[in-house]
Specification:
Length: 116
């Protein structure tokens, strides 16, 4: 897979993750909250990668009107397993796939609880 097609595939995975996240976690956060996907190295494991689903909760609109400082803090919502260098595909791609797998399992549980 060329660099461009790999990037496009990773972007498609992120879009799927965000869609699932909004459906599962959206009702738990204030309207206007923004979900995002980030990644980092796992400090205790050297070069292993961990992908994270995070949320930026929508700040209180009153803070904007009064000119107060608005926090840009985010909250981790879901973490992938540690992804090492061994395996097929990029470590980033495999991290995203692990997040998506976890979200799909949660979606089945969510739909069952809704009687769907």
């Amino acid at each position: 897979m060329g660099d461009y097609s790999q990037v496009m595939h990773e972007e498609a995975l992120v879009a799927r993750i965000l869609s699932q996240a909004r459906a599962i976690y959206g009702p738990k956060y204030p309207y206007g909250s923004t979900f995002d996907v980030i990644y980092s190295n796992e400090m205790s494991a050297g070069k292993d990668l961990v992908a994270w689903l995070i949320v930026y909760p929508m700040p209180d609109n009153a803070a904007f009107k009064t000119g107060k400082a608005v926090s840009n803090e985010w909250t981790p919502v879901l973490k992938s397993r540690r992804i090492g260098g061994k395996g097929t595909g990029s470590t980033l791609q495999r991290g995203y796939q692990d997040l998506l797998r976890k979200l799909r399992i949660m979606m089945v549980e969510t739909m069952a609880s809704m009687g769907k």
